Amino acid sequence: MKVRIKWVEEVSFLAQSESGHAVLMDGPPEGGGRNLGPRPMEMLLMGMAGCSSYDVVHILKKGRADIRDCVLEVDAERATTDPKVFTKIHLHFIVTGKALKTEAVERAIKLSAEKYCSASIMLGQVVAITHDFSVIEAD
Question: Which domain of life does this protein belong to (predicted)?
Answer without folding.
Answer: Bacteria
